[in-house]
Each structure stands twice: as C-alpha cells, then as structure tokens.
C-alpha cells in the first residue's frame, strides 16, 4: 500500500485498491524488473510526499519524468543536485529572474519549491530510460487527474500554472471559481519564445495568493 504520511493519504488512499491501479502496479513490476525505469521506485511519489494536500498553494504540471540517467527524482521539471540543469528548467529560471529578479540558481533541484507549497506534478509518474512517453496510458493519468480534481474541490484557492498544450488539457478538471489558472507555452527551447518568456506567472501567482490571505511562495 502506498503511504505518503500526510493529507494525500485520505485523498488518494482508495485509488490504490482500484482495478486501474492494480493493473498499473503489475505493469510497473514488470518494467522495473526488465528495464531501467525512472525515477527510482522510492522516488515515484515525491511530489505528494513533499507537498501535503493541505499545503498546496500552486500546481505546476509536467508530462512525464526526465528519461535520462540521474535526472528524474519525482518532481516535475526538477533534477537532483549536481545534475546539469535541463533546457526547459533553464528557461523557467530565466523567466523567474526576469519576473522577480531572483538570481539564476546553481542547482536544478526544486525540492525547496515543493516544501514551499508548489506541487510539482507530472501527469505520468514513471518512464522507461530513453523512451519519453513510454508509460503514458497505463493508469497514471487517472491517479494524477484525481489529485487535480481533489485540489479543485478544495475551498482554499490554488494557482494552476499550465505550461504547454498538454498541461492545458487539464483545464476542464479545474472548475472552482476560487482558483487561478495561468497558461503559457511550454518553457522548452522550441516554444519558450512564443509567450513563456514574459508571462510573469511567478509574480501573478504570488499576487493572487497575497490577495487571498495566503503566504507567498518563496520562489
């Protein structure tokens, strides 16, 4: 049984006994035994473990984990200390500097964001090495959509930062008028110049939180 040690246990606990998840679990057993899969098994649920349901202030949605060696550690867009910062994350940091004047960090580890209330959620939580999208359609989307719906049901406002068309597909799940949806092109080098740069999502997010009596995120 999956255990997060926080409010997500009550929110998602029933999911782990449902048919779709039991099938996903069997699929993952086979994948991890026969192939290299990222992230490591103990890091799959880091997004939920590090950011309690009740503490979520903002959600950043990614597609699936990085598929290169040593990159993925269970947080969307994040890489562990000492790992080269991927291009999309470099662009995120560039926009952060432009928007809030925050110096470019030396590490791409976003654990600090997660602990500040940013749920860094990939729609799919695992991937086979070197094969982007290889675990899509296996059941992860059902679980992560349920998490998004649970946040939507919350009275306390949440900011949803949806970058790229894939993330924008989650908009129908977010119906609560108390929440803020911010959309922009994906921060990848292929699309960042078409509206991600200059979107000022970080300052808009903090302004919204402040207006709702919620402590700003320490980006």
3D structure, described in words:
This protein has helices at 8-12, 19-34, 46-50, 87-100, 111-115, 140-152, 165-168, 201-211; strands spanning 37-38, 58-62, 118-122, 127-128, 159-163, 180-184. With 219 residues, the protein is an alpha/beta fold. β5, α7 (165-168) and β6 (180-184) form a beta-alpha-beta unit. It is globular, with a radius of gyration of 17 Å. It starts with 7 loop residues before the first helix and ends in an 8-residue tail after the last helix. The model has no long low-confidence stretch (mean pLDDT 97).
Question: How would you briefly describe this protein structure?
Answer:
With 219 residues, the protein is α/β, with parallel strands linked by helices. 33% of the residues lie in helices and 11% in strands. β5 (159-163), α7 (165-168) and β6 form a beta-alpha-beta unit.
Q: Could you tell me the number of beta strands? A: 6
Tally of helical runs: 8
Identify low-pLDDT runs. Answer: none
β-strand amount:
5-15%
Describe the secondary structure blueprint for this structure.
Elements: H1 8-12, H2 19-34, E1 37-38, H3 46-50, E2 58-62, H4 87-100, H5 111-115, E3 118-122, E4 127-128, H6 140-152, E5 159-163, H7 165-168, E6 180-184, H8 201-211
Parallel strand pairs: 2-3, 2-5, 5-6
Antiparallel strand pairs: 1-4
Give descriptors for this structure.
219 residues, alpha/beta, two-stranded antiparallel sheet
């Amino acid at each position: 049984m999956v255990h997060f040690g926080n409010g997500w246990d009550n929110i998602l606990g029933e999911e782990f006994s449902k048919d779709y998840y039991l099938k996903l679990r069997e699929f993952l057993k086979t994948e991890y035994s026969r192939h290299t899969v990222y992230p490591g098994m103990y890091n799959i649920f880091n997004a939920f473990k590090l950011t309690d349901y009740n503490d979520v202030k903002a959600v950043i949605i990614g597609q699936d984990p990085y598929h290169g060696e040593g990159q993925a550690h269970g947080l969307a867009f994040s890489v562990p200390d000492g790992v080269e910062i991927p291009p999309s994350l470099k662009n995120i940091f560039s926009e952060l500097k432009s928007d809030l004047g925050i110096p470019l960090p030396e590490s791409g580890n976003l654990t600090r964001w997660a602990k500040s209330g940013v749920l860094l959620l990939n729609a799919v939580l695992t991937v086979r090495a070197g094969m982007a999208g290889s675990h899509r359609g296996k059941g992860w989307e059902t679980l992560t959509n349920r998490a998004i719906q649970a946040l939507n049901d919350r009275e306390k406002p949440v900011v949803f930062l949806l970058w790229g068309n894939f993330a924008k597909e989650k908009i129908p799940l977010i119906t609560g008028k108390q929440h803020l949806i911010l959309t922009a092109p994906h921060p990848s080098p292929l699309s960042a110049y078409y509206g991600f740069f200059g979107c000022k999502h970080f300052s808009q997010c903090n302004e919204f939180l402040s207006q709702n009596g919620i402590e700003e995120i320490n980006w």
